[in-house]
Amino acid sequence: MRVVMVPDADGGATTIRTDPAGVPLESPRHHSNAAGAVRDIEAAGHPRWIWTGTAAVYPSLLRAGIRVGRCHDLALTHAILSMRDGVPAPPAEEPLTDDRLGLFDTTPVADPEQVVADFAAQRKTIGTDSRLDLLVAAESAGALAAAEMGFDGLPFSAPAHEAFLEAALGPRPVGYDLPQRIQTVSGEIGAAFGRSINPASHVEVVDAFRREGIELVSTRKHLLREIDHPAVPLLLRHRDLSKLFSTNGWQWLDSWVRDNRFRPVYVPGGVVSGRWASRGGGALQIPKPLRSSVIADPGHTFVIADAGQLEPRILAAMSGDPRMVAAAGADDLYAPVAAETFDGDRAKAKVAILGVLYGATAGEARSLLTLLRTRFPVAVEYVEKAARAGERGEVVRSWLGRACPPPASDFWSHGDARSRGRFTRNFVVQATAAEWALCVLADLRRRLADDSDSELVFFQHDEVMVHTRNPETATRHVLGAVDVATRLLFGDTRVRFPMDVAVRDCYGESSIES
Predict the structure, then answer these.
(1) Do 50 and 74 meet the contact criterion of CB atoms below 8 Å apart?
(2) What domains are defined for the chain?
(3) What does DSSP assign to residue 507?
(4) What is the pLDDT of residues 112-165, one digit of tens each?
């Protein structure tokens, strides 16, 4: 069952039941209470909800304690279909809010009949393309998960983070003052140069070194480290402390952590490859020092699962190269490649395979690539075909049909063909990896909906985190979702997608690296 749901400005909503093609099966029905209507319809039939955009509609339902199983997100689907037509969709006009209502936050009002028409048009475009249909369903499921994770939040100890900030920066400053440690280091930098300077000023730092007889073209970290001067370690220390203060300091804590939960704003499909982005809080960039404050609730633990060597395995499954598929059937894909092609040198095997993915053609990677091309001709040709298409200014697509952006208007006169080729080479693999991860997320969310002991609290590219009272069951959920996602995309493939699973009380204890 499909149900179009269009909220109005007064807390009500209009619903229209349709068939799978978007043909209305009833006249529009108005409900004075949108949340109540959704609750009743969801309980009665678990429909696929059709709405303008999950980010605009779902948060108000979550605040009312309502969760839905499935949806079709018109905005995200429009973005996918428009890009396939070579027309990047503009950003959706939706409130940039988290789960808190601001003074001027309103629910966008749309014409219910137009929403039905838009849904019917999208279904007609998708037609019988099962892969594209799966992509749209996974993208919409991801939007539900993103809204729910932002609403529920990631367990995060505010006291632990405050203690970390005080240890690193000193007591919380008052007003616009800088933390004590930053002020101290600034004074030490001035002493090293024999005069007071602003360490945050590129111009003043370059001028200070010039007075010491040292010419700098930039104050980038790698250039500073080449200089033998007592101010260098102090400048690097100042930079690290300043970044901590500005990015994840007390203001960040006040803004994004409430009730010991970090509540960011995720943006599904925020990157052209389909990877997520973050609109607030830095959800996808949790620095390692902050992870020590991600602490499970009493009686709970985290199950943290990371897909190892994901993109090479994706290439093996996409290309169907027999030898690479066989290598990807092992826990360590690089080991059999090393044994068969590089005299057991795993490091060389890794450099060569990543060189294939990212278009490395210089230095050692070039000679290694020649060996790999002989060993895995089908896999290498798969990405090189995508690279040649990009160099010609063509558009390439992922496994499920996400299209890369068309070249810029000046590509034919001033474009860098080789650079675009590297982009399209990587796009077909990276976008497909994002689709696989999104299918994992969608199925994991479905499994956790029936598990009162576990909740999905974090997702980043190829890593998921479940907060649970029962880590054994949560681990089975994750591994089961991986199996389902693999079959959905690649059928009965011999390629394995092993997950590194860690059970930890604190995220900072995990040795998993993305």
Answers:
(1) yes
(2) 1-152 (3.30.420), 158-254 (1.20.1060.10), 316-427 (1.10.150)
(3) G
(4) 999 999 999 999 999 999 999 999 999 999 999 999 999 999 999 999 999 999
